[in-house]
Structures are given as structure tokens and as C-alpha cells.
Amino acid sequence: MSAHPTVELLKGFLAAFNRHDLDAIMGYFADDCVLYLPRGTGPRGDRFVGKDDVRAGLATRFEGIPDVHFGEDRHWACGNLGVSEWTLAGTTVSGQHVEVRGVDLLEFAQGKITRKDSFWKILA
């Protein structure tokens, strides 16, 4: 694995999300990773620290939107940073269709994600 992220790595990471494969997703993360979700009680959204906590946080995405899919994606990598832009689409467990544009800001160390910070548009 390269010491720095590549566009191909970012595409593979997103593909693991579209398969809803938590084992594959977690393989991209460092042990001391941090995840910030777009929603939460703090100004940065909900925060999860360490692989077990991050896995639990990511599982909520699949539980809340069981058919979630990320499409219309574009990716950039520079140094130890990666950016993935996408459209999230799916239906919540309450039956509401969701389609929203968003972005992940990713930081890497030794080829593994140390920070994933997700943002998406707020629909009125």
C-alpha cells in the first residue's frame, strides 16, 4: 500500500461503502482513527475515536439508511490528504427518500485513514 492516498484508493474506499462491507471499510482505517459524522450534538457533528468506535458510528449510517448509495463521485489526493465528493441517495427506515450532495475530507498516515470528516448539504 502506498504511503500516500491515491484516487484509486479513494474509489476503492467508496466502493466498500456501496457494498455496505464494514470489514472492508475498516481495513482502510488506522487503529487511532477519528470519524466526524455530518450530524450530531457538537459543531463538528458526532465524533468517534478508535476502530471499534468508528465502526459503530459507520454502522449507524447503514442502519438509518439501509439502501444508502454514494454516486456521482469525484476524488482528489494530494500528499497525505484525500477528498471524495459524492451524492448520497437512499431511503431512511421511516420511509423518507434522501438525496444530498456531500464530501469527505480524509487524512492519511502510512496509507491508512487517520481522520474522516464528512459534510453534506442541508436541505430546507
Key terms for this structure?
single chain, 124 residues, alpha+beta, 6-stranded mixed beta sheet, 25% helix, globular
In a nutshell, what does this entry contain?
With 124 residues, this protein is an alpha+beta fold. It has three helices and six strands, in the order ααββαββββ.
Structure report:
The chain is an alpha+beta fold and 124 residues long. It starts with 6 loop residues before the first helix and ends with a strand. The protein has 3 helices and 6 strands. A 6-stranded mixed sheet has the order 2-1-6-5-4-3, with helices on one face. Strand 3 (69-78) and strand 4 (81-91) form a beta hairpin. Helices cover 25% and strands 44% of the residues. The chain has helices at 7-18, 22-26, 51-64, and strands at residues 29-36, 47-49, 69-78, 81-91, 97-109, 112-120. 19% of the residues are buried.
Total DSSP E strands = 6
Q: Which strand-content bin applies to the residues?
A: 35-45%
Order of helices and strands: HHEEHEEEE
Distance between the termini: 42 Å
* Computed Rg: 14 Å
Shape: globular
* Order of the strands making up the biggest sheet: 2-1-6-5-4-3
Helix content: 25-40%
Mean pLDDT: 95
Q: Uncertain runs with pLDDT below 50, 5 residues or more? A: none
Could you describe the largest sheet, including whether it forms a barrel?
Answer: 6 strands, mixed
Number of distinct helices: 3
Structural classification: alpha+beta
